[in-house]
């Protein structure tokens, strides 16, 4: 019975974590709080330092709390192993080479300088050299999980800020393994005849040798193993092979006197160079996220709320000091590598907070008696608070960036105005990827045009390419007149923003009720609304994309091209009839739609010059 009671207690704790994943985290997501921070907060509230303390007075709380962190420790350790395994998958050699300037330039600059400054401050506060080295190194790292989640949600991973931030995070991920070696070396005792820096150098050398040995063995065995498993076409066996490699390599490194995380990291790094990388990422993604959630939940459980309440100023001050130090170092470092000032500031504020590896390193350092319990508790609280504030720091960074961009002298291309004697056959509104493609097609057929865009980057890029692109708001009738709308033979609106498209259509129709007006629509509903406003032709992205997918699929299935083109044309005309029917009660819209019929010669995907991309 005792064993059964223990099993039920463990299952209850697992249910609490699963409930957090299924209920609490989605609620946090609605409040714009990422899943990582949701697990951290849930762990702090439902853990032994939160509501679990009141179980004696309120026994029913036992069903909603976790009072023993050790019961989740094993699962959380697997979360760490898979975190390092996934990081290894992301750190392919090709990706490192492509971003080598920032990864191996800005990355080490940020880590080394930040660690030196934080370590020096720790020494001033009475920490031992070993403790100062550990604190400086672990606090110099940032939260890959939270920062990437913030950037991904806002689709900013490919922006200048996203690429710069990701480059720094890549190097930090590379620095994790030497850091773990350093902690384990320092925890094993320091030879009085050697310095901390000599121990650190020895740890780095030991790490490189271990990685080289595992690399040599892995390259000989991993690819053949996954080839044999892939030939079975069994998803279950493929997943089993992934688990075997990740955990098995970790066990080997553990028995070699190193951490399991190191083995998982190296296994991921080796598999990143194989043709199975994408399949592996897709296979482990579902349960990898849950395991990481358990890890962050267990970290949240270690946050001492009483300690936080007893030392609020110290912890808040430490969190802001950490962000200030790392943010300043990263910002100035980014400027040295040519990153624009506004993007350098945003990168600095994203990198400034602490990261999840601090929890691992601090816990290991406390176990090895490098750090005392009070210092470890304080560092965990500081890192947790700084990570929780990453979305806030991101908002501050974007606002500062906008203010900096506003005060920077504008590019001369943005001050250019269309000439008074402008004579064009077409006016393109929006000069992103779609607008650029439309312009290229017009150039190919010898049709003159002028383009307008309110995105400064698009205008500058267009001018550098020698194209007639001008900065301005196309909803302004005066700007439209200066762009030649009153004499244009056609107006093409390629903007992605639905509200902006509506505004441009209304402005154009106010000046030229008769001009053929071809407009990009988000979907069928948006297209109907545009027809009511009087456009000649609306091209819904979703419909055109589905038609092109159908065409490609039918070709792949061996259907003759003639029947395919005929059926695609028929389906497109059917959609157009359905959409224009919505404008039947608007005479002007119907007339303009009929007038624009000659502009509807969109045939196959080849005739359109490619898919409707944004």
List keywords for this structure.
single chain, 614 residues, mainly alpha, six-stranded parallel sheet, 28 helices, globular, disordered N terminus, disordered C terminus
Describe this protein's structure:
The protein is mainly α and about 625 residues long. The protein is about 70% helix and about 5% strand. It has 28 helices and six strands. β5, α24 and β6 form a beta-alpha-beta unit. α6 runs antiparallel to α8. The longest helix has about 35 residues.
Structural class: mainly alpha
How far apart are the first and last residues' alpha carbons, in Å? Answer: 63 Å
Tell how many strands the DSSP assignment holds: 6
Overall shape: it is globular
Specify the biggest β-sheet. Answer: 6 strands, parallel
Q: Taking Cα atoms only, what radius of gyration do you get, to the nearest Å?
A: 30 Å
Strand content: under 5%
Q: Mind sketching the topology for me?
A:
Blueprint: H1 2-30, H2 35-46, H3 70-90, H4 93-98, H5 100-124, H6 129-139, H7 144-153, H8 160-187, H9 196-231, H10 235-255, H11 260-271, H12 277-301, H13 305-310, H14 312-336, H15 341-351, H16 356-367, H17 373-388, H18 390-407, H19 412-415, E1 426-429, H20 433-444, E2 449-453, H21 456-464, E3 469-471, H22 477-482, E4 490-493, H23 498-511, E5 517-521, H24 524-532, E6 537-540, H25 541-556, H26 561-581, H27 587-595, H28 605-608
Parallel strand pairs: 1-2, 1-4, 2-3, 4-5, 5-6
């Amino acid at each position: 019975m005792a064993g059964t009671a223990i099993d039920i207690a463990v299952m209850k704790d697992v249910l609490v974590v699963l409930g957090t994943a299924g209920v609490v985290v989605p609620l946090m997501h609605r409040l714009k709080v990422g899943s990582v921070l949701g697990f951290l907060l849930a762990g702090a509230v439902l853990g032994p330092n939160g509501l679990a303390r009141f179980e004696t007075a309120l026994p029913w709380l036992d069903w909603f709390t976790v009072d023993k962190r050790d019961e989740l420790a094993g699962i959380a350790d697997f979360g760490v192993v898979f975190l390092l395994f996934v990081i290894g998958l992301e750190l392919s050699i090709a990706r490192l080479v492509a971003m080598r300037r920032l990864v191996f330039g800005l990355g080490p600059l940020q880590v080394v300088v930040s660690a030196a400054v934080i370590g020096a401050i720790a020494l001033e506060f009475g920490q031992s050299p070993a403790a100062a080295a550990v604190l400086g190194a672990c606090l110099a790292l940032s939260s890959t999980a939270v920062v990437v989640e913030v950037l991904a949600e806002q689709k900013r991973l490919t922006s200048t800020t996203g690429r710069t931030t990701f480059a720094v995070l890549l190097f930090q991920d590379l620095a994790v393994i030497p850091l773990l070696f350093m902690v384990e070396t320092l925890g094993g005792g320091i030879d009085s005849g050697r310095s901390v820096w000599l121990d650190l150098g020895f740890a780095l050398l030991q790490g490189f040798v271990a990685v080289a040995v595992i690399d040599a063995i892995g390259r000989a065995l991993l690819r053949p193993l996954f080839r044999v498993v892939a030939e079975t076409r069994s998803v279950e066996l493929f997943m089993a092979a992934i688990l075997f490699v990740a955990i098995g390599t970790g066990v080997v490194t553990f028995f070699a006197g190193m951490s399991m995380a190191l083995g998982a990291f190296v296994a991921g790094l080796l598999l990143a160079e194989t043709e199975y990388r994408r399949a592996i990422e897709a296979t482990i993604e579902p349960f990898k996220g849950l395991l990481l959630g358990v890890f962050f939940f267990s970290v949240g459980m270690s946050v001492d709320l009483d300690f936080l309440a007893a030392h609020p100023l110290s912890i808040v001050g430490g969190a802001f000091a950490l962000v200030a130090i790392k943010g300043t170092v990263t910002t100035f470092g980014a400027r040295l590598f040519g990153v624009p000032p506004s993007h350098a500031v945003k990168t600095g504020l994203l990198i400034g907070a602490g990261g999840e590896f601090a929890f691992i390193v601090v816990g290991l350092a406390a176990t090895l008696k490098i750090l005392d319990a009070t210092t470890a508790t304080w560092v965990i609280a500081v890192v947790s608070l700084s990570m929780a504030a990453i979305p806030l720091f991101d908002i501050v960074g974007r606002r500062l960036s906008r203010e900096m961009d506003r005060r920077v002298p504008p590019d001369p291309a943005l001050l250019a105005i269309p000439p008074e004697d402008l004579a064009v056959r077409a006016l393109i509104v929006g000069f992103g990827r779609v607008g650029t493609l439309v312009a290229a097609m017009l150039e190919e057929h010898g049709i003159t045009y002028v383009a307008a865009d309110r995105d400064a980057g698009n205008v500058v890029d267009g001018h550098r390419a020698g194209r007639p692109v001008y900065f301005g708001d196309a909803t302004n009738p005066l700007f439209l007149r200066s762009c030649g709308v009153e004499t244009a033979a056609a107006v093409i609106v390629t903007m992605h923003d639905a509200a902006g498209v509506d505004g441009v259509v209304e402005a154009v129709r106010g000046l030229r009720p008769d001009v053929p007006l071809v407009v990009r629509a988000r979907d069928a509903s948006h297209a109907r609304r545009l027809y009511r406003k009087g456009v000649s032709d609306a091209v819904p992205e979703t419909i055109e994309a589905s038609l092109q997918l159908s065409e490609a699929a039918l070709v792949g299935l061996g259907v003759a091209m003639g029947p395919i083109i005929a059926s695609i044309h028929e389906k497109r005309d059917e959609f157009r009839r359905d959409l224009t029917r919505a404008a039947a009660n608007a005479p002007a819209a119907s007339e303009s739609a009929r007038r624009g019929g000659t502009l509807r010669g969109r045939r196959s995907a080849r005739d359109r010059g490619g898919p409707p991309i944004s």
